[in-house]
Design goal:
It is built from 5 helices and 8 strands. The N and C termini lie far apart (40 Å). It folds into 2 domains: 3-79, OB fold (Dihydrolipoamide Acetyltransferase, E2P) (Beta Barrel); 133-234, no CATH class. By secondary structure, the chain is of the alpha+beta class. The strands form 2 sheets. It has a 5-stranded mixed beta barrel. The chain has a 3-stranded antiparallel sheet with strand order 7-6-8.
Length: 247
């Protein structure tokens, strides 16, 4: 029903519109993904200041009219992630995380767990901004985050047994169509999945983001391919590469 909406939100994207407005893509705690217009926000004396930029976590007030776009009527900063904004790698990782959430959860159906997961990811990127970390460490953290998004979307891959026949041993491949690992007898149409990649996926799903497992690049490449195959077959979604930015 049209009227005022108050919720927490993360700004996924912010795009210029007209002479002084911005169109925002928000992921909210109570309304899932929504789009909103912030009128006059690009004027020097705008009461919103710079808080409607990507990756800000806000308490936001919106007005829902008859159209698809909500209108921003108020916003208070919960976390601006200032350290993150000074680190190019962390900024890139934040953009990829927000893009993944926006693509996988594109409806207004609320997913509080996804909202909290995104907030935690951005907080970790902010906390570790500026730290030296190899590309594989950043990629591992990004892939662990994506695996948790798959779990939230009900698309977590079958890892404990062959997704085709239920065999629990000789799991040698991964099939996006089957939805998980497959055994030697069912490997037709699959691609190889080494034990280290298999273990990474299982551990990433079972650990908090702060304890994302590590793996060498070849294994991470297989993990990313498994995630991509799952999404393409079951959600018809393609994500940007996970990248190698810092945590």
């Amino acid at each position: 029903m049209p009227g005022p909406v108050k919720t927490e939100a993360v700004v996924l994207r912010s795009m210029r519109y007209g002479e002084a407005d911005r169109i925002l893509q928000l992921y909210t705690a109570n309304r899932g993904r929504v789009s909103a217009i912030a009128k006059g926000v690009r004027r020097t004396r705008s009461r919103f200041g710079g808080r409607l930029e990507p990756f800000f976590r806000l308490r936001i007030e919106l007005h829902e009219g008859r159209g698809e776009l909500l209108t921003v009527t108020g916003a208070q900063t919960i976390d601006g992630h200032a350290r993150l904004r000074g680190d190019a790698g962390a900024l890139d990782a934040a953009a990829r995380a927000c893009d993944a959430v926006g693509r996988l959860f594109e409806t207004s159906e609320p997913h509080p767990g996804v909202y909290n997961l995104l907030c935690r990811k951005l907080a970790l990127l902010d906390e570790h901004a500026g730290e030296e970390e190899g590309a594989s460490g950043g990629r591992a953290a990004a892939l662990a985050f994506r695996l948790k998004l798959l779990l939230a979307a009900g698309l977590a891959p079958q890892l404990g047994a062959c997704a085709s026949c239920g065999e629990r041993e000789h799991l040698v491949g991964f099939s996006g169509a089957a939805g998980g690992v497959v055994c030697a007898a069912c490997e037709a149409g699959s691609f190889p999945l080494e034990e280290t990649a298999h273990r990474f996926m299982a551990e990433a799903l079972g650990r908090p983001l702060t304890e994302a497992p590590e793996a060498v690049e070849p294994a991470l490449g297989q993990v990313e391919r498994a995630i991509a195959a799952t999404l393409e077959h079951h959600a018809h979604v393609r994500l940007m590469p996970a990248g190698g930015a810092s945590r």
